[in-house]
Amino acid sequence: MSDHELAARLATEAGDLLLGVRAELAGADAADRKAAGDKRSHEFLMAALAQHRPGDAVLSEEGADDKARLTAQRVWIVDPLDGTREFSELGRDDWAVHVALWERGDLVAGAVALPAQGVTLATPTVAAPATTSAAPRVVVSRTRPPAVALAVRDALDGTLVEMGSAGAKVASVVQGISDVYVHAGGQYEWDSAAPVAVARAAGLFTSRIDGSPLVYNQSDVSLPDLIVCRPELADAVLAVTRAQ
């Protein structure tokens, strides 16, 4: 099984597990659903990677950070449940599972599962549809849209699309539901590694908000800002974000 196939399989299977957790705990408190989802998906992914890629290191949001990964040639970067709030709210579908592989300095494979949508987007090839919107659609958090994203919306005379998890937001650009995702204010490597791998495979533009490259498997796993957009919009978006 190739790394691409493994990433897609594990993201999908973790997503199926999470759908089961959601159904099992439908009558429980939202906090209990969140905790169970995070824990069970993490345990599944760690066991599966240990079985299929025993020599590789793993960086997971829900696990202790083993700094041995810094000298490893291959590191899986996973978010077992991206969008715990949306997962805990029954009926919402804007949450995800992220599985990415970093190898010798860059992302080489990745998958984003959107379990409640029945969709998994995965490398090596992803088809991003042509935009169908005259005004660029900027996807933002439904609760805390960053000022820089609002500035991009204004500069591009665009519209806002509200959505939950980071993975779902990037996926929306890949799927043609939105055109621009700009984030500032705090994220970690597991929030963007798999979505960025998928976005790049779809031919989308990705960078930090100052235009510098996104770098993974660092000692400090904070990666606080991000742009994912259609390539024809990159210059216009960067003109705004670099000025903020």
TrEMBL record:
Coiled coil region boundaries: none
Database matches in Pfam families: Inositol_P
InterPro entries: CysQ/Inositol_MonoPase, Inositol_monoP_metal-BS, Inositol_monophosphatase-like
GO molecular function: 3'(2'),5'-bisphosphate nucleotidase activity; metal ion binding
Biological-process GO terms, alphabetical: 3'-phosphoadenosine 5'-phosphosulfate metabolic process; sulfate assimilation
PANTHER family: 3'(2'),5'-BISPHOSPHATE NUCLEOTIDASE 1
Identification of the protein by name: 3'(2'),5-bisphosphonucleoside 3'(2')-phosphohydrolase
Species whose genome carries this gene: Mycolicibacterium diernhoferi
